[in-house]
Design a protein that fits this description.
heterodimer; A: ten-stranded parallel sheet; six-stranded parallel sheet; B: 9 strands; rod-shaped
């Protein structure tokens, strides 16, 4: 037995066993250290990316707000500012401002893009619609400016009507396509979420609001074809409607601070209330108990949100 | 050429080997003892090292969890406040806890951010419907949320987060700038 034990201990690979154990321990320690290092590195990278995103956003937001604020004094133009050092991090960034304008349509798209040396970027843009000068001039005293015939049951708001010598601001509907991203919101989306302070171009007669819809939020809606606003609908915030075709407004519809420019025939149902300015080229047919109030602010430029 | 083996020349070799083996056995025992001592010393130092590494590891993991949870939560707030909010109302609820109500650019959408049961929640109201989603991770508790108006369009959100596993607590501050709106105190 003693001899056997002796043999067991004196196996030639016992030293190798110990070395192997030490190696395994060292390996485990090394892998733990490596995984820790990797974890810290990943976290540092994520934090760095987060800071960079915020830096670029801050820079872009500051630039676009400064450009918009100074637009009255200094007309916007394409420009680029480079070699901006971002701290912390020390990355080099550049701001690019592009301005797309269509004066006939009264549209201006301002885009600010900020990029850094690592190809991260942030982009913000805003659209502004400026109604033609004729709109603001006529809207000083009149709320309904019609170049065609006007069928109305009573004269309670006749002082606000302007027909002889009225000027309709001509526009080409094609000038308004391609300015917006995405499709026109569905009726359900409009009813559920409202307008999002953006420009909407409807080229497929999608605007068919259901009865009793209460639409909140601001918006600039361009309608290529005929559109229908059903009974009891209401737009609670500022809205600009540019209708290329006929526009039918149902009974008991309320529009608050609205600018309606309609090239076709405008039909307004009974018991409607519109506060704002209406310009019609075609015929205007108005129902009973129509309440019209002038709101000059409705004819002022409409700016979308920065998005 | 293979050597010719016979009983006479194999026997002396066996004796020789046994003798050598017997003479080395004491030496080996000493060697093994030395190795065992060495292993014990090494094991002890390794244990200390391991213990230190594991403590550092768990500490680091807790820190990372807290940082990740902060980024996760603040990203939701940033997305809403930076791009979509037209008005951010800050105030305290009946329990004295801060809450943030954001009116979205989409007229019928309103978001409310509030803290309850160690979590931060977002209540989204769209028209007549509403839904509540947790904005913080389960493994990290939101112990406190402080809101402060820094400027007309800037809001400071301070979140105090606690890692439930390690009990570690950390406060994170983040400034949110509203692109389209303003901050209102109420």
């Amino acid at each position: 037995m003693q001899r056997q034990g002796c043999r067991m201990l004196s196996r030639p690979y016992s030293k190798g066993n110990i070395s192997l154990t030490i190696l395994v321990i060292a390996l485990v320690l090394l892998s733990v250290s490596c995984s820790l290092l990797q974890l810290v590195r990943q976290e540092a990278e994520a934090a760095y990316e987060d800071i960079r995103t915020r830096q670029l956003y801050d820079l872009t937001a500051s630039a676009i707000r400064a450009s918009i604020a100074g637009e009255q004094e200094n007309p916007l133009r394409d420009m680029e500012i480079s070699d901006i050092i971002l701290q912390p991090g020390g990355a080099v960034a550049a701001i690019k401002q592009t301005v797309k304008e269509n004066q006939a349509a009264g549209l201006r798209l301002l885009t600010i893009t900020t990029t850094d040396s690592e190809d991260n970027s942030c982009r913000l843009q805003q659209i502004r619609y400026t109604p033609p000068a004729a709109v603001a001039a006529q809207a000083l005293e009149h709320a309904l400016i019609a170049t065609g015939s006007v069928e109305k049951p009573c004269d309670t708001w006749s002082a606000l009507l302007y027909t002889s010598g009225a000027v309709f601001p001509e526009f080409n509907i094609k000038d308004y396509s391609g300015w917006t991203n995405g499709s026109f919101p569905t009726t359900a989306t409009l009813q559920q979420s409202g307008l999002g302070g953006r420009m909407y171009f409807d080229d497929t007669s999608l605007l068919k609001l259901a009865k009793g819809s209460k639409i909140k939020g601001q918006g600039f809606i361009v309608l290529k074809n005929v559109a229908n606003i059903e009974d009891d609908c209401s737009f609670e915030d500022r809205i600009v409607i540019l209708a290329n075709g006929n526009l039918t407004i149902g009974n008991r519809v309320t529009l608050n601070k609205a600018l309606i420019i309609c090239r076709g025939t405008l039909r307004i149902g009974a018991d409607c209330t519109i506060k704002g300015v209406i310009l019609v080229k075609g015929n205007t047919i108005i129902g009973n108990n129509f309440t019209l109030m002038l709101d000059r602010e409705a004819a002022s430029p409409f700016s979308t949100i920065i998005y | 050429m293979w050597p010719i083996l016979s009983a006479s020349n194999i026997y002396p070799m066996k004796i020789k080997w046994r003798r050598r083996n017997n003479s080395r056995s004491g030496y080996l025992l000493l060697e093994v003892n030395l190795v065992l001592v060495l292993m014990a010393v090494l094991g002890l130092s390794f244990y200390n090292h391991f213990d230190h590494v594991f403590k550092t590891c768990s500490n680091l993991q807790a820190d990372i969890r807290l940082y990740q949870a902060n980024r996760y939560t603040q990203a939701f707030l940033a997305s809403e406040l930076s791009y979509h909010s037209v008005e951010a109302k800050i105030g305290k609820d009946t329990g004295g806890r801060w809450q943030l109500t954001s009116q979205n650019a989409l007229g019928s959408v309103q978001m409310r951010f509030y803290r309850a049961n160690g979590l931060l929640y977002r209540e989204k109201r769209t028209g007549n419907t509403s839904g509540v989603n947790p904005l913080s991770r389960v493994e990290v508790q939101v112990q406190d949320m402080q809101l402060q108006k820094l400027a007309e369009d800037t809001l400071l959100v301070t979140l105090t987060l606690k890692d439930t596993e390690s009990g570690k607590t950390k406060s994170f501050m983040r400034r949110h700038r509203l692109c389209n709106g303003k901050v209102v105190e109420c």
